[in-house]
Specification:
Blueprint: H1 2-22, E1 23-32, E2 43-46, E3 51-54, E4 60-61, E5 64-66, E6 70-74, E7 81-84, E8 93-100, H2 119-127, H3 146-154, H4 156-186, H5 197-204, H6 208-213, H7 216-234
């Protein structure tokens, strides 16, 4: 029993030394991509350690991380950013600046309209929907440390992890839905202004699985039907 305790202590100290050697000093600054102003209250989440920090009034935060960690920047109403320093030059200090894109673009802001994808390209995107990043997967119960694994599953940080996963799924769903709407507009099936895309997607209230598993015909028939109803109610279609 004493030998087991000594072995555990040696492993713990060794892992602590390795962690200290691999630790990085990171300063993150987050800006709104349109206003260029600092964003306070942005959650910086490290799924590996279940640590969540928030940016201050200057849009800054200094999270503890290593080259092997992947962090997520999360703020309601904005696209989630995922980043890692694994492929960067090896150094001990980093100053990183990120710009978060709002999910909804206001009328007073410039809108960049990309060339619509083909139906085949959109179908490929649809098939890949819902794939959770490895860093956000729930940890498997480990026989070497079942208590730690159970604590992770029941901790409050797990809720942050699930919230982030749902936000990323919704971002992906809306992005693909918008590509479909651009395709329909380009081919004369609809005439929906880009500024109305977000409102129309919320109006349709379609589940993500509908886009993932339905055929092109089923999706087109449903969306066009919703567009005609939405158009009459909103006055777009006279």
């Amino acid at each position: 029993m004493r030998l087991a305790a000594i072995g555990f202590l040696i492993c713990f100290l060794s892992s602590s030394v390795v962690a200290q050697q691999d630790s990085l000093k990171v300063k993150v600054t987050v800006l709104d991509s349109y206003t260029k102003r600092p964003m306070s209250g942005v959650s910086v989440i490290n799924p590996k350690t279940s640590l969540t920090l928030s940016t201050d009034a200057r849009g800054e935060v200094q999270p503890d991380m290593s080259h092997h960690d992947t962090l997520f920047l999360f703020y309601p109403g904005y696209k989630t950013i995922r980043f890692s320093l694994g492929d960067s030059l090896t150094k001990k200090e980093y100053a990183l600046r990120f710009s978060l894109d709002p999910l909804v673009t206001g009328l007073s802001q410039n809108v960049i309209i990309k060339a619509p994808k083909t139906l085949e390209q959109i179908e490929e995107d649809r098939k890949k929907m819902g794939i959770t990043p490895r860093e956000l997967e729930r940890p498997a119960l480990s026989f070497s440390s079942p208590i730690s694994a159970i604590y992770e599953l029941l901790s409050g940080r797990a809720k942050e992890r699930e919230k982030l996963k749902e936000q990323m799924k919704d971002d992906e769903f809306r992005k693909i839905f918008k590509e479909l709407l651009r395709y329909y507009n380009e081919n004369g099936l609809t005439d929906l202004p880009e500024k109305d895309f977000e409102e129309f997607i919320s109006y349709c209230n379609l589940p993500p699985d509908f886009l993932k598993y339905s055929t092109d015909y089923e999706i087109t028939k449903t969306v066009i039907g919703m567009y005609n109803k939405y158009g009459r109610e909103s006055g777009i279609i006279k």
